[in-house]
Design brief:
There is one protein chain. By secondary structure, the chain is mainly alpha-helical. The protein has one domain (3-63). Helices cover 72% and strands 0% of the residues. The protein contains three helices and no strands. The chain is globular.
């Protein structure tokens, strides 16, 4: 699975929550960790939709 695609999806997902802000509310290390977490979810649960995994992970990051 391409990490670049997942990072792009994460950034797009954040835009839904922070449409007026140009920068992400996280550093690059956090972004990499989120991408790794999503990749791990897809490895453990291949039936999970990638879009759903990204949205759930970003939501958990924002509310956690």
């Amino acid at each position: 699975m391409e990490k670049k695609l997942i990072i792009k999806m994460i950034k797009n997902c954040f835009k839904q929550y922070y449409s007026e802000v140009d920068s992400l509310p996280m550093n690059s290390k956090d972004l990499e960790e989120l991408a790794d977490k999503i990749i791990q979810i897809k490895v453990e649960q291949p039936a999970v939709d990638l879009y759903e995994a990204v949205n759930d992970t970003v939501y958990e990051f924002l509310t956690g």
